[in-house]
Amino acid sequence: MSGEPLYERLAEHYRRVIVAGTLAPGDRMPSVRAFMSRHQVSLSTALQTFRHLEDAGWLLAKPRSGYFVRRPPVARLATVHEPEIASRPNEAQYVGLHERISRVLERAHAYPDVLNLGGATAAAALYPTTRLQTLGVRLLRHRPTLLTEVGTEGGSPEFRQAVARRALSSGVTLSIDDVMVTSGGVDAVNLALRAVAQPGDTIAIESPAFFGLLQILESLGLRALEIPASPTTGLSLEALDIALDAYDNVKALVVVPNLQNPLGCIMPDDRKAELVAMCARRGVAIIEDDPYRELIAGDVCARPLKAWDRDGGVIYCPSLNKVLAPGMRLGWMSAGRWHARVRMLKFAQSRLNESLPQVIAAEFIGSGAFDRHLHQLRERLAIQRDAMSDAIARYFPSGTRLSPPPGGMLLWIALPDGCDAEKLFEAALPHGIRIAPGSIFSNSSRFSGFIRLSCPKPYDQEMEHALRQLGQLASGLAI
Ligand SMILES: Cc1ncc(COP(=O)(O)O)c(C=O)c1O
Fold it and tell me: For residue range 112-126, what is the model confidence (pLDDT) as tens digits?
């Protein structure tokens, strides 16, 4: 390092400052004169540093205005392979899968103070803490009985109205009576599965799938039919068609069409329409798990499957936990044909939800603040994803693959041949790093060479160090 010319060391320092988000895209760099005096360097060193950063794509020179920070350039890896479509997928009774997942989670919890790259929630600093706190205090001042009066079955009217209104802009038309509040997405998917199926029934799911869904299926005694999903377009409709021909007892499909977990992909609109039509024709209920849609990069509005639902066959389950406030545990659902049954199950299971988080969320969603927050969150996540993808390309062994997701906080990474994800997970824990091994996203061993990493917080020295370490550990395993 000390052998490097001074301008390269200074450029590296500024690269880190930009990657960490201290200087954001669009920010003006110090003037050449200020730079010289701050770092006690000559004019030629200052200019060399700026040109070096400009050549590497980190700065943009604007005539007569100075140098400005650009979005960090991202080194690209080869993308993840498309899945093979088996002629007939195996129907799995999930007995013991729960234990495999719980073992991984328990191992992770044995190291509580780690950098958690295995979760799927952004750091608290990325959510609107102060604004929500202010709203809560104000609401309690005006409506002190919010904590003591009995709430409303189905959810507070303000909340249901706010989310039903917002759903309109994504092509979903609902009355407030169609909406039921839940304790997040997992609660909604649980209720939906219990409404449409009995223990022993078969449920089609994406492969890989969110491990929480596999836990739910096992806990309800349901059989899962894993349908391959593409890292770019999501669930394979061709494979689903084959599976529905082979099994006539499939009660429902659980699917995450927008920013699938762990793949991060979005199903194109024409395939969404086709999927809804196919399931309606075949009498298969769709449970649409939709916690990440609002995190799609840019201001693109990808529609949920529910927008194509004509006969109430789609049970729509969005959540606010990833997009607004993980601590409020708020979600909602619109259960279509199963509305009355879900309402009964919800009441039998947990009665009413707390009113305060609902009215806070209703106020926030109803104001322009939600869109401003989402805009900022998407921008930040994009920078974090880029910085992490860039580090993975720099530090991971050759043969690593990554398909950049169009939003969210999750990266699904194929490790090179011979590199076992659970071994990497174990090796990383003592170094203070937690990752999610691919093996917990399926009943099969198909994903034992994959890991899921999240980018929960601004890219900083700690992240840089962790990714370098992970890359070294992966290189050791790949040999
Ligand atoms: C696809 C998917 N569904 C549901 C959830 C859980 O959502 P919630 O926290 O709202 O219960 C997650 C969280 O990781 C998820 O990835």
Answer: 889 999 999 999 999
Using the atom order of ligand 1, give the atom closest to the CA of residue 120. Answer: 14
Per-residue pLDDT tens over the stretch 251-289: 999 999 999 999 999 999 999 999 999 999 999 999 999
Average pLDDT over residues 295-318: 94
Which residues, in sequence order, are CB contacts of 221 under 8 Å at separation 6+? 199, 200
> Residues with beta carbon inside 6 Å of ligand 1?
120, 184-186, 210, 212, 256, 261, 289, 291, 319, 321, 331
Q: Cα 316 to chain center, whole Å?
A: 18
Question: 3-state class of 465 per DSSP?
Answer: helix
Taking the C-alpha atoms of residue 287 and residue 338, their distance in angstroms, rounded to an integer, is 11
Q: Residue 241 burial by CB count (10 A; 0-12/13-18/19+): exposed, middle or buried?
A: middle
Q: How far is the CA of 186 from the centre of ligand 1 (A)?
A: 6
The predicted structure's pLDDT at residue 350: 93
pTM for the full model?
0.90
Q: Residue 4: pLDDT band by 50, 70, 90 thresholds?
A: confident
Longest dimension (CA), the chain: 77
How far, in Å, CA of 154 to CA of 158, rounded? 11
Residue type, 423: K
Can you list the domains of the chain with their CATH numbers?
6-69 (1.10.10.10), 91-95+135-369 (3.40.640.10)
pLDDT tens digits for range 37-77:
999 999 999 999 999 898 878 899 998 899 999 876 677 89
Per-residue pLDDT of 190-203, as tens digits, reads 999 999 999 999 99
Residue 1 has pLDDT above 50, yes or no: no
CB 115 within 8 A of CB 432: yes
CA nearest ligand 1 atom 14, residue: 120
Nearest-5° Cα angle at 346, 342 to 350: 175
Ligand 1 atom closest to residue 326's alpha carbon, by position in its atom list: 9
Q: How far, in Å, are 66, 160, 308, 314, 368 from residue 337 at the CA level?
A: 61, 18, 15, 8, 33
- Determine contact, residues 478/401, Cβ cutoff 8 Å: no
So what's the pLDDT on residue 2?
53
Residue 283 CA to its chain's centroid (Å): 30
Burial of 109 (0-12, 13-18, 19+ CB in 10 A): exposed
